[in-house]
């Protein structure tokens, strides 16, 4: 039985060290930052400009800019358009 | 290699782009293939790098097999593939401003341009669609195909059109649980005409396989059902749905609540017309091909000489149409640039293209939204997600006389945010059509300016005066 959100019959590449707001999460090479976040239960990634509502990914393919996160200190990166790398530090707005 | 030495620049490395690039390079022309994504192949050929499963699945899909062979062929020396490259703008209809990998900006002036910019998903906003946990159907598919991750173990699917079934099956095949598939349209309209069926037996066989799979897994299929509201404290917890009568009005008392951590929504597709628009290419409105599309000749040349368009941007019709158009446009471009090309297959390709346009008309008609649903949405429904502009704000602006997309953009900042209207503009056109009682073709699309995608000021400053960096804010 599948326990997490990673599909179990897919053979993964190597496991990487990735952190979200300083906390380590599981990630594998080839996954998008968005997928790694979703698989670890992070759905709320940023807050909207005016209403300050929590927002997460909508389109998943770089169109909607709803999944903006900070990657290795570089702000406003689309989580769906970046692949995870070893040692990557991801910052999201959880509040 | 000087970037300005290219004969042809192709924007978009989806099926149309890679087909055209290969064919053009065969005629000894130098091709620059630009794409914002990490890998060529577009969304249809997305696969988890290193995964055996995806390769295995592709063996049974001739289109994907062709597509992957085309990707492998790209490594020819006359094709320069630049991934993670954004085309930010076009000057005097010819010179492309390109940002490569979030850093370097350069310009390129090719002899011919091919826009193979593809399509994006269309949405129908409802209250709460901004809650985290509400994904597009495409996002769900890409999470599965590209990263092998499900958005949640349980998911509800809603919207309109055939793509809902595709995504539902992909979830099931990967041991996701689909609570239900809700389609605003009717089942009856899905039955194709005999002629269309005979043209596209493989497509309808695939459709039947999806339907069979859903029925076998006892996933409830509810036609004529719409999403009224998504609710949740911080992220999605439940979804309220209702049945629609024949005129598209909500049936009182038919509301139903689904408890779910994830919802996938999709309402068809719209072409990515922004760059061709910026290059001065004329558009034309075809409601059953996705709305505003790039106007092309049979040779796929736009109204601007030496600028061509291929794939979804000339009308939503699926990956096979894109493949065919990639070849047709390549033949046209090579001929235009005065080189010899094998064109014996051209008449067959054009005939095939017409058949796929017929499928497009059928496919897109099934995604059509009943306007009443939009009209009855609550005022606080967010329409422009980047700038948090609500349906109520837009209705008020219309009542004050702002009756074009451009006027509403200036009044409310709709479409001025990060996505530059890519998500909300088609919705805005529908709202204007409903509340100003004009046909959709009477609503002019938003104008487009350079840069068409967000870019950091420091990147642009560096372009104007190299080495000059902006001071850090103190």
Summarize the structure.
The complex is a heterodimer of chains A (95) and B (474). With 95 residues, chain A is mainly beta. Chain A has one helix at residues 33-39, and strands at residues 15-20, 23-28, 46-47, 54-55, 68-71, 74-78, 88-91.
Write out key terms for the chains shown.
heterodimer, A: 95 residues, 5-stranded mixed beta sheet, two-stranded antiparallel sheet, 31% strand, B: 474 residues, alpha/beta, FAD/NAD(P)-binding domain, Arc Repressor Mutant, subunit A, 15 helices
Mean pLDDT of chain A: 94
CATH H-level superfamily title of chain A: 2Fe-2S iron-sulphur cluster binding domain, sarcosine oxidase, alpha subunit, N-terminal domain
> What is the CA-atom radius of gyration of chain B, in angstroms?
22 Å
Question: What general form of chain B does the structure show?
Answer: globular
Q: Could you say what the CATH architecture of the largest domain in chain B is?
A: 3-Layer(bba) Sandwich
Rounded to the nearest angstrom, the distance between the terminal CA atoms of chain A is: 33 Å
- CATH T-level fold name of chain A: Ubiquitin-like (UB roll)
Structural class of chain A, by secondary structure, is: mainly beta
In CATH terms, what is the fold-level topology of the largest domain in chain B? FAD/NAD(P)-binding domain
- What is the molecular shape of chain A? globular
Give the low-confidence spans of chain B: none
């Amino acid at each position: 039985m599948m326990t997490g959100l990673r599909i179990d019959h897919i053979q993964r590449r190597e496991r990487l060290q990735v952190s979200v707001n300083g906390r380590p999460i599981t990630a594998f090479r080839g996954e998008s930052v968005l997928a790694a976040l979703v698989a670890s239960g992070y759905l709320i990634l940023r807050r909207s400009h005016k209403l300050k509502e929590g927002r997460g990914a909508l389109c998943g393919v770089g169109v909607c800019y709803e999944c903006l996160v900070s990657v290795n200190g570089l702000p406003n990166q689309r989580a769906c358009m970046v692949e995870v790398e070893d040692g990557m530090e991801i910052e999201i707005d959880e509040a | 290699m000087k970037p300005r030495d290219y004969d042809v620049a192709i924007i978009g490395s989806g099926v149309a782009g890679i087909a055209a690039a290969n064919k053009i390079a065969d005629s000894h022309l130098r091709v620059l293939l630009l794409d914002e994504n990490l890998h060529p192949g577009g969304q249809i050929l997305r696969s988890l790098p290193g995964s055996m499963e995806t390769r295995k699945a592709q063996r049974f899909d001739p289109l994907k097999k062709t597509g992957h062979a085309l990707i492998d062929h790209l490594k020819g020396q006359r094709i320069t593939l630049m991934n993670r490259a954004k085309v930010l703008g076009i000057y005097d209809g010819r010179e492309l401003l390109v940002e490569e990998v979030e850093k370097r900006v350069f310009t390129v002036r090719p002899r011919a341009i091919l826009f193979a910019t593809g399509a994006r998903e269309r949405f129908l906003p409802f209250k709460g669609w901004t809650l985290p946990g509400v994904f597009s159907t495409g996002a769900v598919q890409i999470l599965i195909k590209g990263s092998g991750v499900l958005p949640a173990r349980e998911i509800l699917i809603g919207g309109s059109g055939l793509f809902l079934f595709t995504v539902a099956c992909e979830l099931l095949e990967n041991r996701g649980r689909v609570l239900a598939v809700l389609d605003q349209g009717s089942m009856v309209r899905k039955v194709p005409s005999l002629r269309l069926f005979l043209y596209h037996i493989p497509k309808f066989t695939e459709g039947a396989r999806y339907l069979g799979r859903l029925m076998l897994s006892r996933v409830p299929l509810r036609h004529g059902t719409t999403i009224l509201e998504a609710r949740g404290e911080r992220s999605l917890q439940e979804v309220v749905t209702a049945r629609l009568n024949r005129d598209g009005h909500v049936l009182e008392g038919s509301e139903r609540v689904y408890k779910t951590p994830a919802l996938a929504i999709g309402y068809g597709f719209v072409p990515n017309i922004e760059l061709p628009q910026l290059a001065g290419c004329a558009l034309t409105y075809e409601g059953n091909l996705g709305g505003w599309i790039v106007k092309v000749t049979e040779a796929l040349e736009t109204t601007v000489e030496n600028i061509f368009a291929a794939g979804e941007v000339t009308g939503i019709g699926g990956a096979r149409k894109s493949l065919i158009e990639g070849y047709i446009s390549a033949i046209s471009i090579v001929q235009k640039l005065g080189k010899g090309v094998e064109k014996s297959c051209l008449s067959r390709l054009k005939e095939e293209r017409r058949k796929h346009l017929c499928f497009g008309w059928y496919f897109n008609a099934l995604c059509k939204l009943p306007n009443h649903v939009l009209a009855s949405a609550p005022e606080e429904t967010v329409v422009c997600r980047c700038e948090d502009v609500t349906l109520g704000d837009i209705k008020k602006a219309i009542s004050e006389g702002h009756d074009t997309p451009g006027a509403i953009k200036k009044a409310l900042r709709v479409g001025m945010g990060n996505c530059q209207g890519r998500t909300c503009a088609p919705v805005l056109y529908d709202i204007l059509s409903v509340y100003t009682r004009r046909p959709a073709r009477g609503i002019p699309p938003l104008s487009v300016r350079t840069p068409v995608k967000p870019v950091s000021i420091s990147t642009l400053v560096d372009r104007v005066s190299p080495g000059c960096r902006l001071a850090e804010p103190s």
